[in-house]
Structure formats: structure tokens, C-alpha cells
Amino acid sequence: MSEKSGKYLFDHLDTVGELLALSPFGLITDVDGTISEIAPSPEEARVSPICREQLASLTKLLELVAAISGRPALEVREMIGIEGMVYIGNHGFERWQGGAVEFIEGVREYPVKVIAALEELGSLLAIEGLALENKGVALAIHYRHCPDRESARRAIREKIATSAIANEFQTLEGRMVVELRPPLGVHKGTAVNALRESYRLRGGIYLGDDASDIDAFRVMHQKGFSALGVIADETPDEVAREADFTLNGVGDVTRFLRWLAGAAPALRQ
Q1: What is the pTM for the complete model shown?
Q2: What is the CATH number of domain 3-104+186-267?
Q3: How would DSSP label each residue in 3-59?
Q4: What is the pLDDT of residues 212-242, one digit of tens each?
Q5: What does the domain layout of the chain look like in residue ranges?
């Protein structure tokens, strides 16, 4: 898969080493499908103790270690549970900071709109296996467990098209999910840029596996940083095309984090 593309990360660790020598340096990672295996339901997903151990070590070696997820920020913090990490939720709409969740400007009216959208789209629950997830300021419609996924996806898009309240949101798609997000021009790329500016980063790596990570990849490229694609069975081809280097699944990410934690002390002297 990624090895055949000539971009397999473990064939290019010298390049990563050059980046790692820059300071301040940031490691920013997606969560589901990157440091946590895709699970049958969001509640079942876990970050392995080994991966958590490496991330905890890296918070002591790098100026920034952050997680950016489509999950709410509090949920991301509880899932990873490492003091010293920065947690960005809902693709950049919220951030766990100072013991509380902070929302970006203009987003506070959307929890009420999400509830209204849930009511208006509730008939979709008649589709076997479909699930609606209230994410506070956004709404996710999961169809991973639907017997006919493509038919379910079409039904979701058709229902959204005829829903007045749903059309007040931006509609985006991920791995077996359609999301309604506030149309405020916020995405993982804007979140990465905000971190880059606030930490004055000179170097960095972003790890991601899905279409929602491509905005972050592109911002990293603009700044001369590196974007690492985590390739799995459901990963869109565009992720590999946009990535500087690739890794083969969550296990390979853990292996890379172990290498990074071991290499950082010598490379950052």
C-alpha cells in the first residue's frame, strides 16, 4: 500500500530527524483511525496504553503535543487522558484549556440548532443500523452498521437536502459518517494554523487518516511542515496523495511514536 508509493515513513526517518531538530516543534495528531483503531461505535474506541505512554513521554520532549478530533473536546481529553496535551474538539470548534472547554466565537447558538436538526432528521432512524450523534455544536449521522451503506448514505443526503434546519449547517463526509457543522469556515486546517501561531512553531508533524485531515495536511505544507498519512482499508486515496509520507495503520503509528520518543532527546540537544 504505502510502501509501494515510495513514501513509507520508515524509509525516510532522516527527513523526520531534520524536522525534529527545529524548535519550537509540534506533534499534532488525529484520534480515530490514527492513534485509536476504528471501533464498531464511537464509545468503544480506545487509545492503547503503549500509544498513550509514548504520547506522555513526548509531552516532556516537545513544545507541543496536541490531538485534534471530530469528537467533542472533553471526550477527546477523557479518551486520551494525558496532562500536558492540548485537546481540540469538533474539528476545531472547541478546545479544552484551563480545566474547561472554550468555544470559538459564533458557535454558541448551534447546540440549540443541533437539537432542532435531530428532531427534523429523526425519521432517518427507521433505517436499520443508522445512528444520530449529538456532538454539542455539530451532528453526526453514522451509517457504518447499515446493511446497505450506499443506500443509507443517499437517504441521508436526500433528507438533509429537504431539511430547512439542516441546511443552516455545512454538510461534510468522513468514514461512514455524514456531519453537519456550523458554516463558520472552521476545520482541522484552521485549528492547526491557530496552534502553529500560538506556539510559534518552526517545525511540526501532523498525523491523520481521513478526508477531514486533508485541510490540516495542506496547512502543514504551506508552512513547510510535514503531513503523515495513516493508511488503512477505508482511507480515501486522496489522503495518501496529500501526505508527505505514509504509515500503515494504528500499529505503525504507535511504532513511529516510540521511535520519535527515543530519537527526540538526541536530535533536540
Answers
A1: 0.89
A2: 3.40.50.1000
A3: GGGT-BGGG-HHHHHHHHTSSSEEEEE--BTTTB---SSGGG--B-HHHHHHHHHHH
A4: 899 999 998 887 787 777 776 678 888 888 8
A5: 3-104+186-267, 110-181
